[in-house]
Each structure stands twice: as structure tokens, then as C-alpha cells.
Amino acid sequence: MKVITIERKVLEKNDEIARQNRVLLEQHGILALNLVSSPGAGKTSIVERTLEHLGKDLKVGVIEGDVQTDFDAQRVARYKVPVIQIVTNGGCHLEARLVQDALSQMDLRGLDILIIENVGNLVCPANYDLGEAMKVVVLSTTEGDDKPLKYPSMFRNASVLLINKIDLLPYLNCNLAALKSNALQINPHLQVFETSCTTTSGIAEWCGWLKDRGARRS
Amino acid sequence: MKVITIERKVLEKNDEIARQNRVLLEQHGILALNLVSSPGAGKTSIVERTLEHLGKDLKVGVIEGDVQTDFDAQRVARYKVPVIQIVTNGGCHLEARLVQDALSQMDLRGLDILIIENVGNLVCPANYDLGEAMKVVVLSTTEGDDKPLKYPSMFRNASVLLINKIDLLPYLNCNLAALKSNALQINPHLQVFETSCTTTSGIAEWCGWLKDRGARRS
């Protein structure tokens, strides 16, 4: 019982810092995405394709969260955008405090969109608000169509589902209709896009939708 | 600091129950595997192919760990083996206590091998000993060759690496040699097998190795 109480306190403290992050981001007119998925579902590739597609029209910043290494920040830095790497050193999710530290090191002026790429983990990041406007969950077709039912919290808390690696469908035992139906059963409000970072299929649709929401109102 | 102290106590308590599980399993001459991976890397398919291959020669029991649903236990039950489903209700990893409960409900007499399929999570289960003889980590080629470096704890704590879905390599941007090299850089003692549950490639090698270790000495 002790642990549960303290975990609740940890979550309450996290939520308070997330609230501060949210106020800061909204003051700057920045649309912040919390990008979550299993390891290897393609989050960084989605970031890269999104930067390629939106980079001319909008100013996008990136915070990379990883258990170890700065490989993802290196990949994203090639696109000449502001990027901060957070290494959690074994931690299984990003917390609002870590994002707050990263925001303090980033020039937020003029940013339209901030993409926060979380640690690869389909369970733990679901419960940690970072101050984002929305969670975007990436699910690879290779993971199978049952995953929304087996890991429901993430799909319940997300606003957008990117079904990624759809180019691999011909080689997999994955029923795309069942995957979508399972996801919408958990969360009927999910906005769903089908994407491939290899063929760029669906990237224009996803980025168009994002651009409508991320364009500065100021 | 409080949280860290209590987490340490939680781990110490877990290790004590894991020790009890290990004694019980060894008394029964059972080789216990803790099967870990990201969601959708193919753990349950590996269990199914292993049961098909070893079922005639050895008696195998299965404990299925899932955040939600009993889909995996249903899949495994078709093979007419003893199977117990643990639903963690949001918990991101199995703990020794949950496995102890499951063991108390399983007839251990005559079992040669026990496969404990953990929750799909490449981070959190790394630190929780369940009383297993070895951790077996499954990594799908679709996750990318950088994952051992990005999620090192799991590869450091495992004895065996199954590189799964090798049938998909022609369609992926995944360098198999780099993947192996990265894994062995983290843990030079890893026993590595390349498997496909679709073509059954590599399953005979993996099961042969396992049979040598799991055959009852009594």
C-alpha cells in the first residue's frame, strides 16, 4: 500500500509539472505531440518524414527520449531543426520534469510544433502526462492486429493512431481491418492514419492533418 | 530518495521470492525460461513453434503474462499443455510473486521445461528476476539493428537472443550482421539463434539447443 501511495504522489507531482509545461507551450502557440510506441515501431522515421514534409511551412522542434544513446537525436539533427536529447539511463518513460528541463534549453520562439519522441514502451508512458496537446501512438503492422486490446491504456489515452509499415502487409499475418476495429473499440475517438516511412504512403495525409492543427494562430 | 529506497525494497522482496521459485523449480528438475521482448516481436509464436517441435520429447508448461486479455493463453492451450494466464491489469512486467501464485496452481510433476512469457516490454522486465534459469530475449528484425544498444539492460541480462522474423529481412532496412554485433557488444556471452515462426527456419536449432538443456537428468 505504501508503494501505491507514493506512486500516486509521483503522478500528482508529474501532473503539476506537466500543467506548467502545457501553459508554457500554449503561451508560445506551440502544438506539442507526445509520440509513443513499442521499440522499433518507427517513431524516429515518422519524425524524419514529418520534418521533410512540413519543414518548409512550419518550424518544428524535437525532443528525443531514449533509455540509452543519442542515435535518434543524431538522425533528427540532420534536418537542421532544434533537437534536445534526453537519456533516461534505464528509465522506462519520459516524465514532465525531464521535458521541463529540455524546454528550458530550447529556443521556443517561433516554433509551431514540438514533437516529443518518448522511450519505446507501449505500457509505461501511457500514464505520464508531459504537457502535450495530444498523444500520437505509432503501431507497426509487424506487431500484429491484437495489440490495441492487449495494451489498451496507450490507445485509450491517445488522440491519433499511426498504423505504420503498411508496405509490409503483404508479407505479414496482420489483418488491417481487425487492427483498426480493435483500436476503435478501445477508443472510438482515435484519428487513424496508415503510413509507410519507406514508400511515404500516408505521410501527406498525416502531415496535412497536423498542419491544419499546428499552423500558428498568431 | 524515498522512492528509490522503496523501489530497492520492492526489488529485494522480489529477489527473495524469485529465490524461492528457483528452489522449487530446481527441486522438480524444471528448466524455466523467462521470455522477454517488445510487444509483437513474436514471443507467443516462438512458444507455439517450440511446443510443436519439443512436445513429443519433453513435457512443457507455459505461464502467460499480459497487461490485458487471455489471447495468448488461448493460443497456447490449443497445444494441450498446462498453461496459466497472469493478467497484470496495467502492470508493465511480471514479478516473482505473480509467478509464485501461478506455480501454486500448476502441476509441476513431470514437467521438463517451463516457459514464462513476460509482458511485451523491452525495458521494465529486465530488472525483475522471476526465478528462471535464463532470460531469453526475442528481437524482431522489424525493430531495427540498433535496439541492443538502445535498450541494453535486457540484452545484458539475457542468456539467449532469438532474432525473429528473419523471413522479412529482404523487405527491411535492417543489417543482420550489425544487429548481432551490437548485441554481442552489450553481452558477448549471448547464445544467438536466427528464427522465423512463419517459415520455421532456425526453430530446429533453437529447440535442439533447448532440448539438450531441458532433458530431465532424473
Explain what you see:
Two copies of one chain form a homodimer. Chain A is α/β, with parallel strands linked by helices. The first copy, chain A, has a single domain (12-214), classed as Rossmann fold (3-Layer(aba) Sandwich), CATH 3.40.50.300. Helix content of chain A is 40%, strand content 18%. Chain A is built from eight helices and seven strands; from the N terminus they run H-E-H-E-H-E-H-E-E-H-H-E-H-E-H. Chain A has helices at residues 2-27, 43-54, 71-77, 96-104, 147-150, 152-157, 176-186, 203-214; strands at 31-36, 60-66, 83-87, 113-117, 134-140, 160-164, 191-194. In chain A, helix 3 links the parallel strand 2 and strand 3. The first copy, chain A, is globular, with a radius of gyration of 17 Å. The mean pLDDT of chain A is 95.
Oligomer: homodimer
The best one-word shape of chain A is globular
Q: What is the level 1 CATH name of chain A?
A: Alpha Beta
User: What value does the Rg of chain A take, in angstroms?
Assistant: 17 Å
Q: Helicity range of the residues of chain A?
A: 25-40%
Average pLDDT reading of chain A: 95
Q: Largest chain-chain contact? A: A-B, 38 and 38 residues
What's the structural domain tally of chain A? 1
**What is the CA–CA distance across the termini of chain A?**
48 Å
Major sheet summary line of chain A = 7 strands, parallel
Q: What is the tally of helical segments of chain A? A: 8
What is CATH's topology name of chain A?
Answer: Rossmann fold
Going by CATH, the architecture of chain A would be: 3-Layer(aba) Sandwich
The ordered string of helix (H) and strand (E) elements of chain A is HEHEHEHEEHHEHEH
Class derived from helix and strand content of chain A: alpha/beta
What is the H level of CATH, i.e. the homologous superfamily of chain A? P-loop containing nucleotide triphosphate hydrolases
Total strands of chain A: the figure is 7
List low-pLDDT spans of chain A.
none
Report the β-strand fraction of chain A as a percent range. 15-25%
Strand order across the largest sheet of chain A:
3-2-4-1-5-6-7
